[in-house]
Amino acid sequence: MGLFDKIKSGLKKTRDVLTGRMDDLVGSYKELDDDFYEELSDILVMSDIGMETTQLAVDRLREKCTSEKIGDPEKARAALKQILVDIMTAPPMPLESPMALIIVGVNGVGKTTTIGKLASRFKVIGRKVIICAADTFRAAAIEQLDVWGQRAGVPVIKRDRGSDPASVCYDVLDEADKRGSDLVLIDTAGRLHVDEALMAELQNIRSTVHPHEILLVIDAMTGQDAVNVAKSFNEALGIDGVILTKLDGDTRGGAALSVRAVTGKPIKFIGTGEKLDQLETFHPSRMASRILGMGDVLSLIERAEMSLDEKKAAELERKLAKNKFDLNDLLDQFDQIERMGSLRDTIKMLPGIGSKIKDEDIDEGAFNRFRSIIYSMTVEERTKPEIINPSRKRRIAAGCGMQVEDVNRLLSQFKQMQKMVKQFGGKGGPKMSKKMRRMMSQNPEMAQRMMGKNGGSNPFGF
Questions:
Q1: Which of 3, 115, 222, 310 is deepest in the core (most CB within 10 A)?
Q2: Element (H, E) at 42
């Protein structure tokens, strides 16, 4: 088994533990006895939370349940969520001006990408940002930083390769003062591992810059290794916060909880993808919900608000009010859903649904096959699918390299979706999303048929 396979296997194990065993635990016990707490400890440890943090959380839960006379396992899970929130909660990042933030981390964790995202994020809220290229030794480091600076629309100040990093930082701070900048993001060199040379270099930069904060970037996929890295950096350098990257896959955030508990330093942001806007403020309550398999609907709403086109949404609502919904509309809706990010991650944010649908039930490549069939249709066929007769089906299938059965399956499922959409038409259009959420929460099997590929009857899993 290769390294990638090992990581994938480990993440699948983490996902299955969180989505299955937590529900089983709550459903299997009628009272909170020693066996309940022991099994809960096992679940948390296997979820990358770590022994020390798990013991802390479980001990606090025992005390709370005893003092408040909580005996119901479901209420205990709610109490545990608040305990996890309390462990992870920290004061917000200061906004005084000017600010100097030093960004540190080992190689390969997404440090340069994160700096680009931070620059974009702070620029959007009105800060005058510049980036300091203090990694003067690694090949292509400055060039990579330049690319992200251009994407964010933020200048990157650099010096010759091989320059002393602390001297570069000193010059850039002077340049920031002249330009009237109020935020300097300092990119520093990383290593494949934590070593004395790296720490000495960073300590020199810290003494020169006197930063407002030192933020450590760590990779969520590395689990407890990320916690060990955070502990080493904190002991040698004194970090002020952590940015957790690669939280876009199956990782559930156990590392976030452990980092906060072991180092005492807060998680400031989380990276959820490679795009410039895929950096989110860390919300302990939402992460606690993810850890306990309870969904994250607030983050889902925020993604939707940033990704969906309000004009198109209004146009679709008008069509729904008239009970009109054709293949062009469906195609457009899937384009907007894709802009929200991975379908797998989006579904997992739905409470009551995400924990019941497995990765193998979700076919990410189905969008392209879905598009291929629709793009093989004429404009009239997309608007009036009912005119598609056997000869048209053969032509459509040939045009997209699929079978007539695939076209039939799509059209059959689309008819079912039209019927469902009509239930939310008329004057009740604005209530559609609430009705849909409630219906899908009550019937996860239907959601799986709609979004997954099991059963052979869904529109996206040919």
A1: 115
A2: helix 34-45
